[in-house]
């Protein structure tokens, strides 16, 4: 029987500093094949849903695929928007090695990728983190950014004030200096790092609120129809992505800015491979506004899943 690693096992296995460093090495080496994922609309107008298939492999070593659903209205059912499973196979025989909880794996590898980007793009003295959203990914982002920067204040904003207050209390219980923020614009203006993870189709992080020296981490918009940052932000910032191909195909923040004429694809400064391999420079000065656009990369899943299995047998 294929061993199954549940969410508890995944969280126990994926130490954030170790995962961030593993992603750094993998993006620099570029020895993992990871085609742009396939996406299919599987929901209805009343309950929209999207199925993503994300394969990746290191030839002769390991093969993996994540099957993940994104149902934005799951919050109404008390569920996370992201639901899925990861399958890991032996790269020499194709024999299944493990099945892994996809929600926990996705949250941790996504947060680790954002933290990895932050090591290149945020100011080393960044102390104030603004979190936009209250979904299942936000706590992982809070801890990941706090792993790489000296965060002394965490501002949590959500469309529902009660949810923001509840999440801030949870983060305080986990050792983070968190507080709920009532005004989104004020929270963004106060932040050194803004991390946004929502399913919004309208801009939330506006360029006029972002002060010089800020790093903006846009995670949630993963289709051309979704968006978290406005044209002014994208046009002002120096923009990076997790993968160039994925971002220019799926990132609504960038695709919509291109369509409006506010930005152009040739202004994408680089991706995580470029940064980790030293091919392009990250932040160039303390006043620069930087933007990292994450849409998700199958390489990240494969690296994280491998670490889970290496940590020991499933409980």
Structure, described:
The protein has 11 helices and 14 strands. It has an 8-stranded parallel sheet with strand order 9-8-7-10-11-14-12-13, with helices on both faces. A 6-stranded mixed sheet has the order 1-6-5-4-3-2. The radius of gyration is 18 Å and the shape is globular. A hairpin with a 3-residue loop joins strand 3 and strand 4. 36% of the residues lie in helices and 23% in strands. The longest helix has 20 residues, at 102-121. The chain has 2 domains: 4-105 and 299-310, ornithine cyclodeaminase, domain 1 (2-Layer Sandwich); 121-296, 3-Layer(aba) Sandwich (Rossmann fold). It has 315 residues and is an alpha/beta fold. It has helices spanning 7-13, 16-29, 102-121, 138-148, 161-173, 184-190, 231-236, 244-250, 252-260, 272-276, 298-310; strands spanning 4-5, 38-41, 50-58, 62-70, 82-90, 96-101, 128-132, 153-157, 178-180, 193-196, 215-218, 238-241, 268-271, 290-293. The chain starts with a strand and ends in a 5-residue tail after the last helix. Helix 1 (7-13) runs parallel beside helix 3 (102-121), helix 2 crosses helix 3 and helix 2 (16-29) packs across helix 11. InterPro entries: NAD(P)-bd_dom_sf (IPR036291), ODC_Mu_crystall (IPR003462), ODC_N (IPR023401). This is Ornithine cyclodeaminase. Its EC number is 4.3.1.12. One of its GO terms (molecular function) is ornithine cyclodeaminase activity. It holds the Pfam family OCD_Mu_crystall.
